Task: structure prediction
Amino acid sequence: MAISQQLKEKIDRLRPNFPTTQALVIPMLHEVQHETGMVSEDSMREIAVFLQLPLMKIREVATFYTMFNKKAVGQVHYQLCSNIGCWLNGSDKLMHHMEQRLKINAGQSSTDGKYTLSEVECLGACGSAPVLQVNEDYYENVDLPMLDELMQSFSSKINAGEKYIGRETYNPEVWP
Result:
């Protein structure tokens, strides 16, 4: 994967707004993921070269945050929190329901590439557990009826040919 010239120019325009080059790592990782759907080892190397930072600085950020996908994910990426607050409020039942409905297990993608189901350790919204992240959007206080409604909505959007599912917060003109 080669980082596009357009992406390099975008990051260069952002540079004056950030106090250090290292502060550009998260925006760059976001943009690479937006362009390619994931942050691969090769893209981390290219980011390190472009930003003139040690590769380890890029890796430590990319691997710390669950929002960066290190492997290809489906068009709809369901990430369900399994930390204690979410688990006590039924995230295990939600996960089982999603596995049955999608016919995949946590950590897998559907064979058609439409869906990925991930169990994540914490989404930082314990007060409104259980929490589900779909692509870049959070859904809090999720119960089975809400989950079914969301899953049906995303399925309908895929079938209608929509490219970005759940990315209602993304604005390509403004970072993030």
Summary: The two ends are 22 Å apart (CA to CA).
